[in-house]
Design goal:
By secondary structure, the chain is mostly helical. The protein contains four helices and no strands. The chain has two domains: 50 residues, no CATH class; 35 residues, no CATH class. Helix 1 packs antiparallel against helix 2. It is globular, with a radius of gyration of 15 Å.
Length: 85
């Protein structure tokens, strides 16, 4: 996957991305993207484990956390139930 990561890093270097206006959770760090970190962390996603449980747990700490599953099936709903027990 390293060659794919390197190619994606080169692609991202040519793309202007703005910092998000709302918190967006990084799969690599399981916390909101820090200003200026999007390109680096998007590339790192290719070779890093997804920190799904930590990301969901972080989002669930918000006082008014609501999770919506969009699309067919209930896979995410089941995973959320297991994580948030």
């Amino acid at each position: 996957m390293e060659p794919a990561k390197s190619a994606f890093e080169a692609f991202l270097a040519e793309v202007a991305l703005k910092d998000p206006e709302l918190p967006v959770i990084s799969n690599v760090e399981a916390k909101p993207y820090a200003p200026g970190s999007i390109q680096q962390l998007l590339a790192e996603q290719i070779t890093s484990p997804v920190r799904w449980v930590e990301s969901i747990s972080l989002m669930n700490q918000e006082p008014d956390a609501v999770f919506e599953e969009i699309g067919p099936g209930n896979v995410l709903k089941g995973l959320l139930r297991q994580i948030l027990r």
